[in-house]
Amino acid sequence: MSSGDKLFGRLLNRHPPQPPNTPDPASVQRVGLQLHLDDEGRVIHLSGPLWHLLAQQIPDAQSPHLLDYLIPHSALSVEGSPADWQGQILDLDFFTLVGQPLHLRGWVQPLGEKWLLQLIDIGDLLLERRQARSREQCQLLAAQVSEQLRLCSLTRLPEVLAEQLQGLALRFQIPCMAMALLDEQAEGWLIHQQYAAFDAPRLWETNQRLGSGLDSLNGSVPQQLTPSEHPRLQSSFGNAEGFVVPYHNAQGVVAWLLCGFCRVQERAPDLSERDWLQLTAALAGPLLERLREHQHHLQLERLEFLQALLDTGWWEVFSDDAQVQLAPSLANTLNLTSARMPLHDWLEQIHPADREELTIRLQTLRDEGTPLLLCVRLHRPDMAQTPIWYRLQGQALGIGRNRRLVGFMLDISDIKNQPTAPT
Questions:
Q1: Please, which residues have CB within 8 angstroms of residue 285's CB and are 6 or more apart in sequence?
Q2: Shared domain check, 149 and 65
Q3: Would 126 be classed as within a structural domain?
């Protein structure tokens, strides 16, 4: 095309035809894998940085067919001849020298009288996709484990924990798995619950003390253990390989997930350190929360028993709505139908001679925070009955809108009604 033709074309807004898009042989050979094929699909020549990873073919009179390089399931993608594969994206898995298949993606195009199959490595892409799918499944599994532990009754908590450990161990083919918590009675760690497959040696027993060997490990990341590298843990793992995952909160490391007789990278290659930490948190977090709940429940039971035994109990006055809340045992002792009532109804239980003084002291406690200490009698219609004396003590906790007025009532009738010794 002459310079005049070019100028005329620009004036008419016409563009010269583009040259055909043919691959540059030099640039093509710098990436991936290139296979030069004949019309039957036989490999005439290999090039590219990946060709040396392929499994070697036995020399033969004829060139090897493309199918000879492929893992059998990839044969469905290249049925027929190269002419039939044009316009298709081909995902092919090749045999390699190292055993792991080589995952390649590419296309075929004419090259002179032959064909060029151009392929690039998509192993990393497939790995990322598989890890993303595994991460989603791990998040779902962690949510299910956590929900089971949070919603079960306290009496079923040990059983449910054992079920969750068994489920994880079976899912990832781990022969032995256990949850270790801090030992409150001795320094070190204690097996709180464990699972062992029927055909695996039992590494641990529930309530087994492990000592302090786990303290020598990094409490921030999961770790693979070998006996030679961690001699302090031989009493916990014996001569078995293991895998441990820490769980920590504001108090530091408070739990370990223990896996025995396994190399986790082989059993669960798609799980990252973050995934293991998430699974361990789904087990240990709700478990510790429920155990604290259980201890709190036991403490309340002991307190209720002690209050009933001593005819005493706590009280709390709510100034916003002039209500008072009594301990259930105290409300029962005073023969009240409800443990929460208007402040006026509570004061009606006090003897008229002591009622006004108590009202003033409560007002002073609320306004000035002055501690309350007063002995009062209960109001009994039958004046001939022996008076029932209570010692009231209270204080203000917090400031401003968060201020609470709390205290207790203690039956001191035995002391008050003792006969006076003659002088």
A1: 146, 247, 249
A2: no
A3: no
pLDDT digits (tens, 9 = 90+) for 161-180: 999 999 999 999 999 999 99
Tell me: the pLDDT tens digits for 33-54?
999 999 999 999 999 999 888 8
Residues pairing with 253 in the sheet: 248
Q: What is the mean pLDDT of residues 296-307?
A: 84
Asked whether residue 387 is domain-assigned, the answer is yes
Range of the domain at 385: 310-416
CA dist., res. 310 & res. 302, Å (int):
12
- DSSP string for residues in 115-134: EEEEEEE-HHHHHHHHHHHH
| DSSP letter for each residue of 184-198 | SSSSSEEEEEEEE-T
Q: Which residue has the tokens 């005073």?
A: 334
Q: What is the pLDDT of residue 283?
A: 97
Residue 421 lies in a domain: no
Band (422; pLDDT cuts 50, 70, 90): low
The CA–CA distances, whole Å, from 366 to 314, 319, 361 equal 17, 8, 9
Mean pLDDT of 44-70: 85
Q: Does pTM top 0.85 for this prediction?
A: no
Q: Does residue 388 lie in a domain region? A: yes
Same domain for 175 and 274: yes
Number of domains the chain is built from: 3
